[in-house]
Amino acid sequence: MVDFPVSLLHFFRVTPHATVSLGRFTGVLLATTTTLLLGAQAVYANDVQLPKGQRSLEVRQTQGKVTYKGSRPRPAQSGDRLSAGQGLTTAARSSAVIGIDSNIGIVKVAEKTDFTVRNLTIAADGGRVTLLNVHRGQVALQVRPFTNKGSRLEVKTPSGIAGVRGTEFGVAVSPQGRTAIMTNEGSVAAEAQGQSVMVEAGYSSLIYPGEPPTPPRPTVEDLSLKLNTSDAYRSGLVRVAGKVDPINAVIYGDQELEVGRDGSFRLESRTQQRNWATIVVRTPLGKEKTHTIWLR
Fold first, then answer.
1. H-only helix segments in the chain
2. Is 91 left (phi over 0), alpha (psi -120 to 50) or beta?
3. How far apart, in Å, are the Cα atoms of 70 and each of 12, 93, 168, 274?
């Protein structure tokens, strides 16, 4: 496994007037078909639970305020090991890179994300089974192709479970529980409410709680923001309404705004600036752009 420089963390940072691109592995990732399953899924019957501490994830890098979730929460640091039931939370403008044992891959944890290791097991054929939870926020995964049929990696969200066998994709969970999936390499089969769609490389899909996945559509990575209205700073309040690509997240300060099915959003909040405000638009893979809104 190649160690990743601190610069790879920058795609999670909010940088005014800049677009930050997702970094890639050094080397070649071979894409294979992967699976997205909805709902809780039990550990397979032929999985063998390893003794505590035998398998773990390693915190490779941290930036900003990252908290280690264990028996006693504390600041996380490089070299920390995460076993089942442990995890990380990131504050605003903070991020982390986690390495999965046996050189399986890495997980890049964006700001304002709650991440937990659900379980770490080994299959009957020696394959590694890695089950992760993302309660809120955004992660990007780069996973090498597995050599054992029993190997799998799953990321559970409030809306579903993203299962991979070797691919690069992003998962973003909104405060309302919506899950956005964007596949960069490989393919993902999205299944929910008895319906299934295949999300190939270069395509994206959304899963709303209690609904089947939306039909996959080509990923254009449109980070633009179309402003409908903006009101001047009055009594400390700013009001903004606009639209983005519905697959994207919209962040104002420490707050992720609700994005409608058509990409519409509304903002009403206090601000310290009298003439302008900044809004960040971010894809599920972590690419983002900061927009400056000039107020009338």
1. none
2. beta
3. 24, 22, 28, 42
